Amino acid sequence: MAGNSAFELVSERGWRRGLGNLLDNEFGSWWKTSLWWIQTLIWVGVIGFMLSAVVFGAKESIDTVVTIYCVFAGLFPAVAVVIVMQDAVVGEKQTGTAAWVLSKPASRPAFILSKLAADSVGVLVTMVILPGIVAYALMWFGTGSQLDPLAFLEGLAVIWLFQLFFLAFTLMLGTFFNNRGPVIGIPLALLFFQQYLIGLIPPTNYLLPWTLVVPLNNQTDAMVPHLLLGQPIGSYLQLFLIAAEIVIFVLIALWRFEREEF
Amino acid sequence: MGDFVIQTQGLSKTYKQTNALQSLDLAVHHNSIFGFLGPNGAGKTTTIKLMLGLIRPTAGSATIFGMDSVRQSVDIRARTGYLPQEPHFYEHMTARQTLRFTARFFFKGPQKALEERIDEMLDLVDLADKADRQIKSFSGGERQRLGIAQAQVNYPDLLILDEPAASLDPLGRRDMLEVMSKLRKYTTIFYSTHILDDVQRVSDTVVILNKGKLVAQGPIEELLAGSEGVIYIVHLKGDVEGAASLVQSQPWVSGIKTGQHNDETTWQVSVSDPAVAEAQLLKLLVNGPVLVTEFHRKQYELEDIFIQVIEGGQNGRK
To answer: CB 3.0–4.6 Å: which of A50, A53, A171, B288 could bond A57 by disulfide?
Structure first.
């Protein structure tokens, strides 16, 4: 390059090439725009409102409140996760910004991983932690029972895992399709129909995240309420398998995106 | 290898049943301005995307700076600036943020030098007063100018411009050609366009593609000389038949095409030895029974050559 002796060249190589810059950009799209506070406002509002109704209106017991919280904190933000993530890859493919970014010295894995990292953290903070803090306070003041903060954090971590499952799944689909329909439709269908699938094929209970947050047909307790209440859980197999699936979705996304043509 | 920035060998790309590019062989010298011409759908953008590793060849290969476009595409792009045909940027960013984002793919710092380079680029494309406006409010021409700026922010050794003048007004086009001419001493410029006048003004080498095939390639002077050889245009009045016999009998004359307009006859004299023709043709005529009203060597416009090779189906190289 001519005339650039005043500059310090980027030293990242291989799959990390461009990662730092892309991470800055992706984190910036959460924290330097209105996205973070809009998402926070929505989920603090939705979860706070529903919990307030249960805690102060119906005056349910802490066990019931926790169970209801898990359903709201798990299922509803997952819809937003799908909507945010479909835009991450398909949106950029459609607008042409992906092709522009990849015409720079940026590796394709860096492009995918930067989105995964920034959106995972964005979801964690705005859809899990901040609404979780509000929910914790509401449960404490509403029922008079203070939950163990560490146990509560464990529960939030599993709620985050639930969201990550849909985040990684949508990210993967975005690398296969060029239009938004299937990238939104398939994860949302899975989100709401997984309980029927588990009913049809019971072993899929270990492969699908439904029973992390929602009790199955009122017969099987969900995992997160137990964690939030500081109760022991039977097996970590489901957690391990869901985490493994997330890794597999990401690996498939990386493989597919490497073959994408722009 | 060392003399060429770009080399392609049998480079081909097929989409399902469509041959977008068929066995392209190119060689682009250092510090040249290489014009890449062809009608819509000729395969120009496909070639550029293959060179940048945005798509993979079906057959053949491309090497840029001696590096393979498939296996070493990131390293190639580290030394290249690229303006896409329709530049798409993040709409929420400002022009300055876009240039900063682009520059950070190449340079870690120092911040002061980066900001100075960004200001320099904004000045170059006359966007300094709009630097902090979001791109979603930019016109097509402003986006194109920003595209030109971001393509140059890294001091590229190779600048690839896909239809750089497409959205520019005449003044913008003129400025862009000036910038290209200035950059020649630092960089090699490979650009596709359909504006033949621009190519004729700044390019030193030209390639014409049609339906995915290379149909003409060569230095601009050679292409402008035409494929018909050297022709002299003569306008004359008087006894043209006698003069024609005299001219036709010369061993260096290969043919005369005659046209008539009012009382004036026009000849297109094809010659096999331009040097002898230049010295003797006019002399022969002025000493004869005709009045020569005009005499010049036929000059081709690139547009003539372009139409000739595209419509004439010339599939060989110049």
So the answer is: A53
In chain A, where are the structural domains located?
33-258
Spell out the domains of chain B, with CATH numbers in brackets.
4-224 (3.40.50.300), 230-297 (3.30.70.260)
* CA distance to B10, B138, B317, per residue, from B190 (Å): 19, 26, 19
Cβ pairs A/B, distance under 8 A: 93
Q: Which of A71-80, A186-195, B178-187, B231-240 has the lowest mean pLDDT?
A: B178-187
B38 in the Ramachandran plot: left (φ > 0), alpha (ψ -120 to 50) or beta? Answer: left
Facing A10 at nearest CB: one of B89, B92, B107: B107
**How would you classify the pairing of strands B59-64 and B67-68?**
antiparallel
Q: How many Å lie between the alpha carbon of B86 and the closest alpha carbon of chain A?
A: 9
8-state DSSP, B312: T
The answer to whether the CB of B30 falls within 8 A of the CB of B54 is no
Q: Is A258 on the interface with B (CB under 8 A)?
A: no
The sheet carrying B4-15 orders its strands as B18-29, B4-15, B59-64, B67-68
Q: What is the ipTM of this complex?
A: 0.87
Residues of B at the A interface (Cβ-Cβ below 8 Å)? 49, 52, 54-56, 74-75, 77-79, 82, 84, 86-90, 92, 101-102, 104-110, 113-114, 117, 154-157, 186-187
